[in-house]
Amino acid sequence: METDGERDPLHAKPNAVRETPTILRVxxxxxxxxxxxxxxxxxxxxxxxxxxxxxxxxxRSRRVExxxxxxxxxxxxxxxxxxxxxxxxAFILGFEVQDAIALLRLDDLYIERFEIKDVKQTxxxxxxxxxxGRISGKNGKTKFTIENTTRTRIVLxxxxxxxxxxxQNIRVARDAICGLxxxxxxxxxYSRMRTIAARVSEQT
Length: 204
What we know:
The chain has helices at 30-38, 40-50, 77-93, 97-100, 102-105, 116-119, 125-136, 141-150, 167-181, 186-203; strands at residues 2-3, 6-7, 16-20, 23-27, 53-58, 63-68, 110-115, 153-157, 160-165. It is of the alpha+beta class and 204 residues long. The strands form three sheets. A four-stranded antiparallel beta sheet has the order 3-4-6-5. The two termini are 30 Å apart.
């Protein structure tokens, strides 16, 4: 997150950039430009109609611009603006609109993003490809199992991994993914994940 040109590395979002207290801009990488164009109305309507935030695409800078509506006197408008930026940013990261939109409705959802090399730096070439394959599984089965068990949504984009969910559920999902990256058998990872997920569910 950049505030008035200064970067805050601790709380940085991958694409969301704050320009002023009333305007947020989200950069759109070239490979997400076409998907954004196709899904524009699905994103635009909840942002403008439900959250009361103006939204437009700046074609020159290739950024989505979000700002408070001039007529809005909503005391939570600042929070709505940030939620909308997080929603758009989630889509840019690769989440489906129907999953990302939960960021507008719930206050306890977050996105955690990391790279495979953050877990094991020595993975290269075929070993890196196999690690990605272990996370996804045949026909995406492993990723789907982790998502269902931990009640999260996961996006694999090359070597980048993004997880959408509550803080505790993200931690469980990340633990499972890290186990797969490090070479643990899927069966062992599933067993540990289900045990921890059940424990977390009992505590909430």
